[in-house]
Amino acid sequence: MAERNVTAVHFFSSAGKVIEAYHKVLQPLCQEEDLPIIAMDMLLFWANNPEKTTAQDICRCRGLKPGIVSVYVERLVSEGYLQRQPVPGDRRKVLLRCTEKAEPLVERGRELQKRFARRLMEGLGDEELRIFYHCLTVLGQNVEDVRKNGIETEE
Known about the structure:
Layout: H1 8-33, H2 37-48, H3 55-62, H4 66-78, E1 82-87, E2 90-98, H5 103-121, H6 126-149
Antiparallel strand pairs: 1-2
Helix pairs in contact: 1-5, 2-4, 3-4
């Protein structure tokens, strides 16, 4: 049986390293376009998740603070990469959409994302990838359950 003594630090460390490597891949594009990594990451988030259209969505999905999101949304809007649209029936909400100007940048970012994913999967066979995707699905469901319900404490 596989070792079950995985601690939270294993998850945090692994997630942190993946994010660090991902940012290293995006860095040359960000430097070329004079955009901070987080702004590029946010732009790609909205481009890749068209059902997620608000600042609240990215805060919830990516764990970003609203103040940080607000700063970078303003920058992306002012540079013409994002546009704000009112939500009919809810004047407090604003939809965020990538602009036509963002399209070439998004396509280049998506290509880097694909190359990054392929690189991380190197050396894994079809069966290992099938199991990996299954594990990601189960872990994702468990994470969502913990986010909603917490965990039972042992007494």
